[in-house]
Write a structure and sequence with these properties.
By secondary structure, the protein is an alpha+beta fold. It has 14 helices and 10 strands. β7 and β8 form a beta hairpin. α2 packs across α5, α5 runs antiparallel to α6 and α10 packs across α11. Bound molecules: fe (ii) ion.
């Protein structure tokens, strides 16, 4: 069991699982070890970390204190306070007028253009050790929020199209957009939605402290390079520091977006509910954008393929949140089951190569007539024609052996596609 204790409370025989606080503030390169030397215990007690995480299953447990002297959890491990981000706040109009994908795409392109310069300037300032000036980018976050409210697929689709040179900045804008879209789907309040946007924008700030050649390296990373990359959550957290402009959600997401539900993530190996809602959302948005982007060492996956693969990574993401995320995007996992608004069930094939917002599906079952249909591929695009209502659980429709059913649908459809 993992326990958080104050640095002053460490004793020999404890198994140190991790540290909470700045990467720069703890005195050890490795974090997981059995504490056997008094000199090491002294280093921890004198360090500036806010807490030490000890594993009581692998070493001595901390001495229980009377209830009158509770051990305070470190600030960044508490449930986020969801304090609003500082800066001039422009509340959204009560109802954003909806726009078509095509109309919104033009505005979204302008937002992206503007964001490149602003975010690059902010990150460069952080790299040089200057304080982050959040108020400079808050109007941009409000513009992203408004664009997503008018049409939630335009900006989400466009931010995916980034070239290799601008990846670091555009990945931040993309995760900001995805977090805002995700938070809206969860019906979070406006202040929280805005803070989620800030968190998305700053989640990888620590990569400013990692040499670009390591971030872009196509070959296998050495152990030292891997350690350097894996230190970026703590480095980012240290760069944010106690800047009063930055909301706590952003600190939380910055430090914990590489944790995994099964405890195999880093930097602390937190599990399940030890990871906050915001950090679990951040993990999904971060990976989704990374795998759908063009990188020096790999070609991008289409959104449908990416979501299909992410769903199979057991223990990585919060499964329930993953389904909400999928529905928030309007893209659906390749190989997944969806319901259309004309009483048909369909198998998702992939995105449409000609239209980044289109999804190719094979309708195969009519739910009103309870009848199998001959599967014929159609492309579903937002704003017109047949629409996807959402992802469905195959078991709910009694497709207990979904992989077999899916293969049968594909086998039936392929001769038709070939003939066409
Ligand atoms: Fe990261």
């Amino acid at each position: 069991m993992l326990r958080h204790i104050k640095p002053a409370e460490v004793t020999l025989g404890m198994f140190v699982h991790g540290f909470v606080g700045s990467w720069f503030d703890h005195p050890f390169w490795r974090k997981k070890f059995l504490l056997t030397e008094e000199a090491d215990a002294l280093k921890i007690r004198e360090s500036r970390v806010s807490a030490v995480i000890v594993d009581t299953a692998r070493g001595a447990a901390p001495v229980e204190r009377p209830a009158a002297m509770p051990i305070a959890a470190p600030a960044n491990m508490l449930p986020p306070r969801y304090a609003p981000a500082a800066g001039r706040y422009r509340p959204p109009p009560a109802v954003q007028p909806k726009t078509s994908f095509r109309q919104e795409s033009r505005r979204a392109a302008r937002i992206i253009d503007k964001s490149k310069k602003k975010v690059a300037a902010m990150f460069e300032a952080a790299r040089l050790g200057h304080a982050l000036k959040l108020p400079d980018v808050l109007p941009l976050i409000d513009e992203i929020r408004d664009s997503v409210a008018r049409n939630n697929r335009a900006l989400v689709s466009l931010v995916q199209l980034k070239n290799k040179d601008e990846y670091t900045y555009m990945h931040s804008v993309a995760v900001c957009t995805l977090m805002i879209n995700f938070a809206r789907m969860l019906d979070l309040d406006e202040n929280t939605i805005r803070s989620m946007g800030v968190a998305g924008l700053l989640h990888d700030l620590g990569k400013m402290a990692v040499p670009q050649m390591i971030l872009d390296k196509a070959e296998r990373l050495t152990d030292d390079e891997m350690t350097m990359i894996r230190s970026h959550p703590e480095r980012g957290h240290a760069l944010i520091g106690d800047n009063p402009d930055i909301p706590d959600i952003a600190r939380d997401v910055c430090l914990h977006h590489h944790e995994k539900i099964d405890g195999t993530g880093y930097p602390f190996g937190l599990k399940g509910n030890e990871i906050s809602l915001a950090a679990r959302m951040g993990a999904i948005c971060d990976v989704y954008d990374a795998v759908t982007s063009n990188r020096p060492y790999k070609d991008p996956w289409t959104p449908c393929v990416a979501l299909g693969r992410m769903l199979t990574w057991e223990g990585h993401f919060d499964e329930r949140l993953m389904r909400v995320f999928i529905n928030s995007l309007g893209f659906y996992p390749a190989g997944g089951l969806v319901r259309l608004n004309d009483h048909r069930l369909a198998l998702v094939v992939d995105n449409c190569p000609e239209d980044p917002s289109g999804v190719r599906v094979l309708p195969f079952y009519c739910t009103s007539r309870l009848q199998e249909l001959e599967p014929q591929e159609i492309t579903v695009t937002p704003d017109r024609g047949v629409q996807i209502l959402g992802i469905e659980r195959p078991e709910f429709w009694h497709f207990e052996d979904w992989p077999t059913k899916r293969n049968a649908i594909l086998a039936q459809a392929i001769p038709l596609s070939t003939a066409a």
